Each structure stands twice: as C-alpha cells, then as structure tokens.
Amino acid sequence: MASTNERIPSSIYLIDFFIYCPLLCEKEGQEERKILYYYPSDINLDRQIRTIGYCEGLVQFTETFGFDDPCETVHFQKTRLLFHKIENDICIAMTLHIPVIERKKDDKFITDYLDENINDRIMLPILKMSYRYFILQHGTMSTIIQHGGIEELRNVLKQYFDKFIQHHLHTIIRDATLDTSFFGIQFLPVEKKLYLKLQSILRRLELRFSSLKETLFLYKDQLIWSGLSQDDTSLVYSFFRLYYWPHIKTLLNSSIAQYLTIDTTANLADELIISSNSTSEIYQAFFLGNPLTPYRVLVININLITIFCFFHDDDDIINNEDVDSQIVDTLKKDLDTMLPSFEEHLRKKYPSTDITVRTIYYNKINMAHSSTIDWTREPNNSMAGVMNTLAEDMQWFHPSGEIMVKRENDPWIISKRSDMRELLIVVNQKNANLKEISDKVKQIFATQFSNILLIE
C-alpha cells in the first residue's frame, strides 16, 4: 500500500505494437509503405513513420558493431522498446510503458520511473512468441506475400493481431513473470509401463489411419506424449495453454468425446467451439515443421484428456466424419481405464512439501518447466527483481555455477545452473546462516530433484 507521501504506482502496459519491412520503401516519400501493421491504428501516420524510422535506425546502427547477438531492446526513461527481426528484413516491435510512482518531497510530488520493474528477459520472449503464434496459424509472412501480395498480408496481420492484442497480449504483459518467460512445457512423468501402453495405443492409431501423421497427448495441462519435434511441441503446447486450457478446465468432466476448435478472431469468451459431432468446421490448420507444412488438426477432449491429431492437409480426410468417430472409439476404450493412473501420477508430481521452500526448474534441452511459486501471492516486487536478475546472470555460467543471495528481510535465493538445466530456490528461513542454507539446498536436491543430474 502506498504511504501518504506516495501515490499508487502505475503498471506496465503496451503503448504500441508494429510490424514493418524497410525494403518496401524504395525512395524518400514512400516511408508509409514499409508499415505492415501498427497498433493502435488511430495513431497519426506521421508518428507511425517516425516511430518505425527510429526503430529502423537503431537496428542499423547496432548492426555496425558486429555483435554475435543483435540488439533487441532499448531503454528509455519513460518507455522500453523491444524489437526482433523475423524474416526477409521484416521486423516486429513493441513499446512498453515504464511504471512510475510519485513521491512527495518538499510539498511537491516527484516522479520516479521504475525501470527495474521491466525485465528484458521476461518481455522479449512475449514479443517473439506473438510472431510464432501467428505463423502457427497462417504460415510465414513471406508465403502470404508470394500468394496474395503485400495488401493481403496487411489484411491478415490486422485481422489477427487486432484480436490477439485486445484479448491476449495486454493480459500476457500484465501477468508476465519469470515462470511465463520460459514458455516451457509441464510434463507429467508416468511409470514406464503406462507410458509404453499409451505410446502403443497412439502408434496403432497412426498405423490404422494413414492420413493421421502425429499425435500430442495431454492430461489436464500436463504433456505426456508428443510425436512432434521439440520446437513444434513447445509451440502447440503454449498455444494450448493460451487458448484451450482456460476453457477446458471449466468444462464438466464427461466421458463423452468433445471436438474442440479455436476461433482466434472471436471474443475471448466465445473463442472455444465445442461440438459432440465432428465436422469439417471442427478442423483447424496449423503450420508445422521445417519447411513449414500445413496440417489439419483435430482436437478431441475426453475427461480432461486432450488429444491433438495432426493430419496432412489432404482432401480425403476433410468432411470424413467416419474416420473421426473411429478414432474416438479406438481411443476411448483404453483411455477410460488409464484415467485413474494419470490422476495418481499428477498427485505424485505435486506432493506436500516444505512450505518454506519454493522452486523454479527449467531444462533448455527438452524445455521442461516446473514451479511451486504462486505469483499472485508471492514474491514481492523487490524479491521478484532479484530472481529475475539471478536468472539472467545464470546465462553466464559455463557449464555450471551457483549463486546464493540474502538481502535484509528477504528469504534466501539460490540460483544454480548445471549445463542446460537451471534451478532457482527460495528458502524462507531468514535467520539461517550460509552453512545451514547450503545443507538445506543439498536436502532439496536429494528429495525433489534426485532424478535430475545437477553437477556440484
């Protein structure tokens, strides 16, 4: 709560979001041609041109230094600019408002800009993932230009990003935390016998229906199996968490198969379409693989089990309701018997643990991510800032390293990197000494991460 000498601080919010291609401006006076998309659209055209020109100049200026990693963020006193080059000199960018707080000094309110409240490591992945969500549903921008021209691309971008920003991006930015920045995958580890049984069921399904190429299997919001590549799996999983899971977790448990699809152009409350009968309208297209290949995706939900079925975009499976019903019949017999086992393994994944300990784990190899931190209740801003900084510092550890931090009135925070695995531990024992915390960390490794190689 703000004191009588302070006013309630403002929060982070999106100022603008734009996509541009410098190659479209062939000579002076054609600067507006490089604008492919700009939000908000009611911004004066001259200001749009100046903003994009400034961003373009920064990109070109930093490229002259020949750094291995391109400059993708610029810090200003009042704003934060983030930009990312995506394809064929097309860039995507957004500007964020830096929170401010007004403090009373000598009977006047002085404005302080809380620059530390915006972390590049957390915000930049949001910008990049916004682009990945787009190509998942529409393919690359270059392909759209080849097939329909620049104006077609502008129309597609406007239709998609107007809705995405309004219904999702503002919320993603507002609720961004260290956990959300990983865009990782929450795996549900199951015993070998159960895993092999599930893999066998899905493999038999793919052999029976030749047009079915791959499957992705989830229980609640936990991934158990995917036949896709690692990058495609993480993208589809993130799409599931953003669009499907908020709706699915509110549905009543039912052993009746439900066919699901997402209308990304609809309002947030109306975007999930549920049907008890499969039709051609229930399929949606995803662009996956390298090079990108269009797939028709059938999403089936049974008792909080969600199965993504990926078909090649061939005419023979469109409008083929018999195939869909056979797939469901084949799956349902086995899944009904496996459901109690999935729930049991989910309980084992989150056992009752020491309430003084919170952990964040991320594996860059398979993008596995787990966390026991409730960001709606903990930690406070200053503690979250320390955790963000430690997460950034871990990138300099090669191949491993460890840092322990203790600030007055704050818990102990330990960051550890072991090759491609990262672990953050918060131990709420403020009076413990370094030796006691070191022993506590070893105990945590032995009890909670015994199956994970963490080099000492």
What does this structure look like?
It is a single chain. By secondary structure, the protein is α+β, with helices and mostly antiparallel strands. The protein has three domains: 13-181, Beta-Lactamase; 192-349, Dynein light chain 2a, cytoplasmic (Beta-Lactamase, 2-Layer Sandwich), CATH 3.30.450.30; 357-448, Beta-Lactamase (2-Layer Sandwich). It is 37% helix and 27% strand. The chain has helices at 45-63, 120-138, 141-148, 150-174, 178-181, 192-208, 230-248, 321-349, 381-393, 434-448; strands at residues 13-20, 35-39, 73-75, 79-87, 90-97, 100-105, 108-113, 212-219, 222-226, 258-262, 272-275, 284-288, 293-302, 305-312, 357-363, 368-371, 400-406, 412-418, 421-427. A hairpin with a 2-residue loop joins strand 18 and strand 19.
The number of strands is: 19
Fraction of residues in helix: 25-40%
* CATH structural fold name of the largest domain: Beta-Lactamase
Overall mean pLDDT stands at 87
Residue windows where pLDDT falls under 50 for at least 5 positions: none
Strand content: 25-35%
The biggest beta sheet reads:
7 strands, antiparallel
Overall morphology: globular
| Helical/strand content category | alpha+beta
Tally of contiguous helical segments: 10
Oligomer: single chain
The CATH top-level class label of the largest domain: Alpha Beta
Q: What's the domain count?
A: 3
Order of helices and strands: EEHEEEEEHHHHHEEHEEEEEHEEHEEEH
Distance between the termini: 42 Å
- At CATH's second level, what is the architecture of the largest domain? 2-Layer Sandwich
- Computed over alpha carbons, the radius of gyration is 24 Å
